[in-house]
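Lesson 9: reading folded outputs for more than one chain in a single document. The general rule is that every protein is listed as its sequence immediately followed by its structure tokens, and records are never interleaved. Here is the first one.
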Amino acid sequence: MKRIWEDINFTAICNENPYYMGFKLYQITGMEVSTTDPKKFDIPHYQCKNARTNSDTTTDIEKAQVYVSGGLKWDGCCNFRFDEQENCMLHTCGKKGMTDIGKALERVHDLGSELIQNWDGS
């Protein structure tokens, strides 16, 4: 399952079963013009795995660097790690960038409540 959250610049990829949901979050670094509407930007760009510069981006999520990954259990408990931190120090521009990371994790929790069949988390 894939969700693109343009408002906070993250895309989530989730795999769920009745008791657990694995997730990966990818940070959107920019948007490309739509293939169907030239007035709309709706194709996300992500940092490439092993990128050497900020301009090393891709629209293929399979080639993109994972920003955060983890797993959410049926009871609302979550383990996660900042994969991106293995490559560099994390950087945000202003308060919004910092709060967007928290909002992305909050939305993962909300997805768990929707997708995990035996959800009993708070």
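And here is the second record, again sequence then tokens.
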Amino acid sequence: MAITTTTIVPTPIPVEYEGITELGQDLSIASRREIRFSISSETIAAAGAGDNQRLLITALPPQAFAHVLVDLSLIFKSEDGGSVNWPAQFAAFWNSNSTGETEQFAIEMRSQGTFATGTGNNERRVYAAARLPGAVFLPRSDAANLLNLNVINPTANDAAYEVTFFARMLEYNVRQAYHWRVNSMVPVRGGV
């Protein structure tokens, strides 16, 4: 039995905020911008005889800033009219260095259900994070990824799938990231 791996490395998409000067930004709890990672309809190839499928998604936001993960979702869609056989829950990892040895959080990804897609008998299984870490992370200069999603389909010989992925992070200046209000769980984080 072998594992067929599909690796996806989404490009960070910055969403700029307007209205606060850099000096004002350092004194506020408002993030400077959002960084989004989005993949739509990427194909996971069918597994060979006796093989399993593996999906690996790694995301690295700009490294000169601090980040807070605020949204994470994933959708598997069957392409052959069959059922979605990926596990009902799995873990994604949020860490601040290339080896994952320090400041690592496992994020439980739970299935929100399986739905018909409206085209043929294809199913769609939607996953969302059960709880996000909430911590502010400063990526190290040697970081290979900050968000790492690695899931294996336990069903051998399974069909091809389409995958849709979305992650959203708030970005802070490093000086601002050390402010107690940014690190507090009480304020609602968000844009300007």
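What the second record shows: The helical segments are 22-27, 174-177, 180-183.
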